[in-house]
Design a protein that fits this description.
With about 280 residues, the protein is an alpha/beta fold. The protein has five helices and 16 strands. The strands form three sheets. Strands 1, 2, 3, 4, 5, 6, 11 and 16 form an eight-stranded mixed beta sheet that branches. A six-stranded mixed beta sheet has the order 7-8-9-10-14-15. Strands 12-13 form a two-stranded antiparallel sheet. The N and C termini lie far apart (about 50 Å). The model has no long low-confidence stretch (mean pLDDT about 95). Its EC number is 3.5.-.-, 3.5.1.77. It is an enzyme of class 3 (hydrolase).
Length: about 280
Amino acid sequence: MTVVTLAAVAAHFGRDLPRCVEKVVGITAAARQDGVDLLVFPDACLGGYIGDFRAPDPEDPPPALDPDGPEIAAVIAAAGPMTVCLGYAEASVGGGRYNAAICVTGDGVLGTHRKVHQPAGEALTYLAGDGFSVFDTPVGRLGMLIDYDKTFPEAARALAAADAHIIAALSAWPASITDRASRLPADRQSRLFDLYDCARAAENQVVVVSSNQTGVMGNLRFLGQAKVVGPGGDILATTRAKGGLAKVAIDVEAEVGRARKVLNHLAELRPDTYRSPL
């Protein structure tokens, strides 16, 4: 039996990059001291997200960072044996930036992901990624998704089909911008955020570690609701709408094996039948 402690962060990260780095390093150091094995930060935790989907301010884009630069290096130095996933804007060789996630330990970079699915006007700020990858970590085989990616079942399924037992879902997921509720828990996007986390875990029988931003940036009000979801779709720990750490100790392999013992969704797939109707 190998029990690991998984934790998802709900916190606010804005444009002040030095402050973001300091905050990420501080949370990482505290989590490491507390025995966390996997720590998942929100999307855009280094430099913030955009402040408007439909018309992002061209004068205030997230800072485009080099994955080999000092910001990621500071997190690597703080991580030690802990596995840390975090989101940032990755500078493109040809100019522009990707909405990206990177997974590190004190030994260096384990894996990366560039957000594939773009909502509304996000393409005005970010380039789109073109694939999904899975990689080995000290806590097990893992893949990453960035907020809107988890809306699409095929994205999580691609990771699970490549033997990921943990999905780190990093988000900067706001409340509805068209039909905002007076209270965050009643917001339509609040319900969908939780629904997608639980559905992606249950349909693939994997563990989902879901982080999210809190607070306000521009006209976006972020939901929080960081959580760890078990392979049966049950929420094991959550921050709800507040900032904090959703943390749980779990034997990932045992729980995934138990979920798949009788009904194994991946083994029982019938991809030969999944074609467009005539």
